[in-house]
């Protein structure tokens, strides 16, 4: 399975340096949404990395597809070059708390 990303150009460079071969650079959420839908059709893509800001702008589509698709592809939201979105940080803390059993301090 492949890892793919849809991010701003700066984040895409970092992901390529980390070994992500399919790092798509986008300037707006509409372009991201098109690429996202194409990726969902590709069977080789097992993990899709999105920046939080793009995922937020894509809105319900990402949430619906996360629930609808089940296990694969795994959709991971990461902060972009401007940092984490405060409203998304709480969700990450909850995931870590459930997975590890410890609450993460700020």
TrEMBL record:
Main localization, broad class: membrane
Organism domain of life: Archaea
GO (cellular component) term, any one: plasma membrane
Membrane topology: Peripheral membrane protein
Keywords per UniProt: ATP synthesis, Cell membrane, Hydrogen ion transport, Ion transport, Membrane, Transport
Pfam families the record matches: ATP-synt_F
InterPro entries registered for this protein in UniProt: ATPase_V1-cplx_f_g_su, ATPase_V1-cplx_fsu_bac/arc, ATPase_V1_fsu_sf
Molecular function via GO: ATP binding; proton-transporting ATP synthase activity, rotational mechanism; proton-transporting ATPase activity, rotational mechanism
Annotated localization: Cell membrane
Keyword Iron-sulfur in record: no
GO BP term, example: proton motive force-driven plasma membrane ATP synthesis
Entry similarity comment: Belongs to the V-ATPase F subunit family.
Function: Component of the A-type ATP synthase that produces ATP from ADP in the presence of a proton gradient across the membrane.
Subunit architecture: Has multiple subunits with at least A(3), B(3), C, D, E, F, H, I and proteolipid K(x).
Protein name, as recorded: A-type ATP synthase subunit F
Species whose genome carries this gene: candidate division MSBL1 archaeon SCGC-AAA261F17
Gene for this chain: atpF
